[in-house]
Amino acid sequence: MKTSTLLSLPDGVSVPEGGSTTVGDTTYTKNQNGTFTAVARLAGDDSFGRPTMGLVNATMQVIKSWDDALDPTQRPESVTLQILQDDHEYSQLTLDATSEWQATLVVAPGLFAGDKKLEPGHNYSVKELDGSKAYELSAETIHPMLVNGVLQKTTSDSAATLVATNALKGEIAITKIVTTEDGETVPADAEFSFKVGLKDASGQWGGGALTYRVYESDGSMSYKGTISDGGTISLQASQTARILLLPSQMHYTIEEQSLPGSFKNTDSSNATGTTGANTLSTVTFTNNYATTPAVLTQGLEVTRVLEGRPWLKSDHFEFTLAAIDAAPLPEQTTATATAGAKTASFGRLRSTGLEPTATRSARTPRDLPVCKTTGTRLKPQSW
Fold this sequence. Notes:
The protein is mainly beta. It folds into three domains: about 1-165, Immunoglobulin-like, CATH 2.60.40.1140; about 170-290, Collagen-binding surface protein Cna, B-type domain (Immunoglobulin-like, Sandwich); about 290-383, no CATH class. The chain has no helices and 32 strands. The strands form nine sheets. A six-stranded mixed β-sheet has the order 19-18-21-16-25-23, with no helix packed on it. It is rod-shaped and about 140 Å long. The chain starts with a strand and ends in a 12-residue tail after the last strand. About 20% of the residues are buried.
């Protein structure tokens, strides 16, 4: 006697509700889950067409498991599983949160009585018909057996349960950190470029473009884009780029490209690595920003000009410099012009906020000191 489970009846065969139909040497019975059990009489059966030992159907649990703590919002509302019996389509199950992501499946198990195998049974495996691209599916193949009346996964003592696990694909987070010297301010428009390398286990990349999102330090999203192997991502200080939905076991390399002026690379971590399912790979690059002080080598001078009368020996004009908006001041803030020295000097002016580039002006007019006597801004005679 051979027992098998069918998704549909052969052409021309029908089974009444709650009954059975015999066609030739095969009897068909409808199961509660909509499948059909076919019992075929083989040589060795008794003259009444009954097997020497009847094999009943058994039920086992099918469970959908989730490994997605990194971002559970990616989980779909439901999934449809295709159950295979010996690699052939056997049944379909739709699971969702309402069913606690599990269902009961009627199967035709193998049969052990004592130490004798009376029925070989079948292999059962699973495919996902409408799986999300955000997940990777893993599921074992089981061979349920009735061993002395107890349904087991195999002839071992583990319960016969078919588990399909969806693991969320991994992510890479690239963060730019910038430190400064005392009193320095990082230019708001400074950008940093990172080259991204992505390879699978064979050393190739065929996954197409991946989405990445750039976040500010407060967690708000700034913008998003796409990246492939060899592409670049630009960040500003304190921003983080997250590359989403990377398959597991991908090898990655992150390289920072040439830095803007006055920035030096001081540290990096996890710039190379391998992605994992439901895992965030965190990459950081730290730069230090420091400018080089600039000095007026000939000092800051002011010349007193008299119109309408000549200079007298008693003429004495004192000038005082005051800083506006924290502008730098020279070594001395007062200077005196006399008939013998009509040009007064304040000495050298030192600024810690200037970059040592020849094409950049040292100070805008707004930053220059002001003469309290005349109220005018003083211009340097020579840089």
